[in-house]
Each structure stands twice: as structure tokens, then as C-alpha cells.
């Protein structure tokens, strides 16, 4: 867990893109503006191909998939945790970053202990697309924790400001925030890009009455 009050890292472009752009500009300058006899044409061509391959090989990962990389985590009384996520391909030992939606929010790093054949969730309204995993927590802590949000296959940093977690999930320079609010009988868990763009939403049915505090934007289909 890290603490950082700067929610905007100020990234202008990814280094691979800068490298690729520099290579293209250099080739254009050499062949069309200043034709210096430094290397033969074939040597220049080979060097250019090598630079392009290197740039592509270190390109940033594919676009973040909100549907399959975000799930619900429940902390169980025996200090274990249950992950519900529509992603059947997580492997044993994979790291999962859990944003505990407490006050203040905290980061719990867990690992996939095993994939389960049936639901481990106390929510009776799981989706047919959901897969279920037992998580092993790094801290053996049996204190009660709220239903929270888990992020899989995300290698970036999670920052904290004013008690809330923020993470640049899509590697665009825009910070995402995490929220839980109550309806009359359940919880609406959401992930937001900025203040008004909801990127992910799941409902968790509690089965008993609670005091609602959600606004319409937390659950509305119109985003």
C-alpha cells in the first residue's frame, strides 16, 4: 500500500510510444531531409525493423477489462476470503488487490488459493457467468470487514487520499475510485473513472432491511 496525494501522475505518453515515434522521425529525416552516408540502406532498414520490434515488445498491456478483472470479495469469519468474479481463468498463486470499503478504505493484498466448484458467496443472486475462488490473505486478521471490491491482474499502484483508494486501472492517467452504498436490502458496489463516469457496478443482496444511502447514479442503467 502506498500513500500519494497526487492523483494525476502527469504521464504524457508511454515510453514505448516515445521510442517508436523517435525511430519513425529519425528514418524520415534521414531519407527525405538529410541523407547522411552513415550506414548503407540495408543496414538502416534492419536497424529500423529491430527498433520497431523492440518498441512493440515492451508496449503496455492490453486494455483493462472491467467486466472480468473486477469482482466482489467477502471476508469470512475464519480469516479467509471468497472472491466472486466473472473470470474462470485465474490461477492459483495470482495476486488479487482488494479495496476494503471501510472507513478509511484500505488495501488488502491476497492470493488465489484455489478455484471452487460451487459458490462460496453469501449472496444468493450471483450471476451464471461468475467463478468463485478462495483467497489467502497476507494478514491473518479475523476482524469483521465489509463486502468489498477486488481487482485481478492489475500491476499498478493503489494510492490513498483523504481515506479513499484511487488507482489508474486503465493506464490512461485517469484515477478510478471505489464505492459502496446501500439500497433497502442490499449494496451497490461501483468503480468510477473520475467523478461521474461509472465503469463497473454489481449488486450484492443482503436479505434484510437497511437504511438506504445510494443516489440514482449509483444504480441507474443510464450512466
Structural descriptors:
2 domains, 5-stranded antiparallel beta sheet, 223 residues, disordered N terminus, alpha+beta
Architecture overview:
- Strands 1-2-5-4-3-6 form a 6-stranded antiparallel barrel. It has a 5-stranded antiparallel β-sheet with strand order 7-8-9-10-11, with no helix packed on it.
- It has 3 helices and 11 strands.
- The protein folds into 2 domains: 43 residues, no CATH class; 153 residues, no CATH class.
- A hairpin with a 5-residue loop joins strand 1 and strand 2.
- The protein starts with 14 loop residues before the first helix and ends in an 18-residue tail after the last strand.
- With 223 residues, the protein is an alpha+beta fold.
Short description:
Helices cover 17% and strands 32% of the residues. It is of the alpha+beta class and 223 residues long. It has a 6-stranded antiparallel β-barrel.
Amino acid at each position: 500500500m502506498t500513500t500519494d496525494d497526487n492523483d494525476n501522475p502527469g504521464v504524457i505518453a508511454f515510453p514505448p510510444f516515445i521510442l517508436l515515434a523517435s525511430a519513425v522521425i529519425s528514418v524520415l529525416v534521414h531519407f527525405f531531409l538529410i541523407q547522411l552516408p552513415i550506414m548503407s540502406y540495408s543496414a538502416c532498414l534492419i536497424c529500423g525493423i529491430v527498433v520497431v520490434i523492440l518498441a512493440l515488445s515492451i508496449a503496455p498491456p492490453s486494455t483493462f477489462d472491467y467486466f472480468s478483472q473486477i469482482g466482489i470479495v467477502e471476508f469470512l469469519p475464519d480469516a479467509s476470503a471468497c472472491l466472486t468474479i466473472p473470470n474462470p481463468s485465474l490461477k492459483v498463486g495470482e495476486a488479487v488487490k482488494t479495496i476494503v470499503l471501510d472507513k478509511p478504505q484500505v488495501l488488502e493484498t491476497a492470493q488465489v488459493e484455489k478455484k471452487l466448484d460451487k459458490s462460496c458467496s453469501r449472496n444468493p443472486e450471483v450471476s451464471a457467468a461468475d467463478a468463485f475462488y478462495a483467497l489467502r490473505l497476507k494478514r491473518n486478521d479475523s476482524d469483521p470487514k465489509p463486502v468489498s471490491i477486488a481487482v485481478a491482474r492489475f500491476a499498478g499502484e493503489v494510492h490513498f487520499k483523504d481515506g479513499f483508494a484511487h488507482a489508474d486501472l486503465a493506464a490512461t492517467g485517469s484515477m478510478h475510485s471505489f464505492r459502496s452504498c446501500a439500497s433497502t436490502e442490499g449494496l451497490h458496489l461501483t468503480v468510477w473513472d473520475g467523478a461521474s463516469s461509472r465503469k463497473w457496478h454489481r449488486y450484492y443482496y443482503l436479505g434484510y432491511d437497511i437504511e438506504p444511502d445510494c443516489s440514482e447514479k449509483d444504480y441507474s442503467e443510464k450512466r
